[in-house]
Amino acid sequence: MSPSPTTARKAWRDSDSLDGDAMILMRDMARLGGKPLRGVRWRNCCGRSWRTRSERNPRIGYAGGERSHHVGAVAGIRKACTAALSTVAIVLWKTTESFKDSPASWWKTMLDPTTPCDLSEDLGPVVSPEAIADSPSDKDLQRADGAGRIVVSGSREGTYIMDVYQRSPIRIMFPRAGEGAVEEAVFINTAGGVAGGDKLESGVTALPNASIAVTSQAAEKIYRALNEPARIVTKLRACATAKLAWLPQETIIFNGGRVSRETEVEVSSGTELLAVEWLVLGRAAHGEKMAGGRITDSWRVTKDGRLIWADSFRITDEIFPHVHRNALLSDCKAFATLIYFGPDLETRLELLRNITSSITCHCAPTSVGGLIIVRFASEDAFDLRIGLRNFLRHCSQEAGPGPFRVPKMWSC
To answer: What is the reported pTM?
Structure first.
């Protein structure tokens, strides 16, 4: 089967001067030790048909002495075609010497992008696919390096935007009705997912009196990687009397996906913050099971510049065959971590314990270092989503108006 023009260009840098049929003819010449096939029919750039009358010396141009079998061909077109064929013949002649000493499989490997190729210097040096095939890496492929940061502040009229920075593929939207104050921000990954080697950074700063909920447009997807993990960094900062809720939708890890996610939270006295991150292992609708990959999900929370809590969750290729054990994830494929910082922690903790008793998925809160930590786990992502929605709904009812509620984007 002949290669596509795209494949040919990958293997031969100067293929723009030749069409696909010319390359096929050159392949056939290689199989005959540098001699052209007898009676080979092919088309030139002008679309006219040409045929060799006998085996020729490669040093003699193919256009010399050939006849056109197209009746009524215009002389001007014939001259243009002859010039084009002469150019092809020169290229063929320059490469003939290397063909004579090469096995017939030489051209097969050139036309296969996953196997070695060794072109002559006259045709220009190219990177051998053999090296890439032996040690494929995400670094050799195009990868994203995006960032998005927002700064919001509060006033008597409500929360307003002070600064927005975004770099593709990250985009930030602020859906609202009419001219009302900003209540919700939505981070969007226009790339549609995260591949190995991608770098994405998100940042939210809530200045005094600001109140905002931040979420994502849809579930994030971590695709299978070759050897490099995707790096996702989230930086949250709440100052003084600000209220900040970080409520993205789930992150789905494909089989073989590699991701390193870091969530850095900075709070101060008088601040109220709620943040959640949740992971889903595999695509349940496809019946996918995680047989390998690498996941690192870490948290660091500082208060007034002092570290008060750090946590890290890590799974590697060696661990995945054992995650079904009861001491690890058991049968749970989806799990989440939620943290809360604010006033009256003891009262809030008792309230959350009463809430978790009515949550359908596995759920348990605790207090560590001035924070409330709540862990969620479920056998599938849908039950976990329902559990988180119910949890946030109860929080909204108890806390009153504010950002600690189910984001509108979760219902889209």
So the answer is: 0.68
